[in-house]
């Protein structure tokens, strides 16, 4: 992969400078712009049209969740993949960012090589959700969030056109299983799982795995606190 253009969003100048040095040190990555808050981020992304947005989640004014929601809703910026930067993997705002359209998240303590890999992963169209973190994070915060009947109904409607097997695959995705693990659980080949995933994304109008997880929980297909 080459030519991945990145926008860095953080309210600390020093952090942005460090991330710029890291990203620009790679031959296939380029910093296309920077922003110090969410509102500025929306303007910069609309102007430079990057592939990936490194988005700090906690900022004064328009925070990372609100900015991600604005980016996802605007046709000019919806194609940009948002990779959330957070201090804690149990940050209550992370689920909100995923629900708003983020493709994944990484900790600010992530080693530089792993952060670079994360940028390339989301640029390639994959969601960055570690299974163990997915299970804990989503279960904790869907349990704590008040029920939104409107969101639940909208998510449930997205499942109406799914086959029984597609629902089964979606449930396993929400449980945090990877494609190889799903293939082993269902006793099918990896290519079959990929086909199911493609159909799930198309039928639910989801951009990636992260949005599938959110739909599974908000529709009630998966309940917080489940056990395998």
From TrEMBL:
GO terms for molecular function: DNA binding. Pfam families: GerE, Response_reg. This is Response regulator transcription factor. It comes from Kitasatospora acidiphila. SUPFAM superfamilies: C-terminal effector domain of the bipartite response regulators (SSF46894), CheY-like (SSF52172). Residues 155-220 form the HTH luxR-type domain. Keywords: DNA-binding, Phosphoprotein, Transcription, Transcription regulation. The modification 4-aspartylphosphate is found at residue 56. Residues 5-123 form the Response regulatory domain. GO terms for biological process: phosphorelay signal transduction system; regulation of DNA-templated transcription. It comes from the Bacteria. The lineage of its organism: Bacteria, Bacillati, Actinomycetota, Actinomycetes, Kitasatosporales.
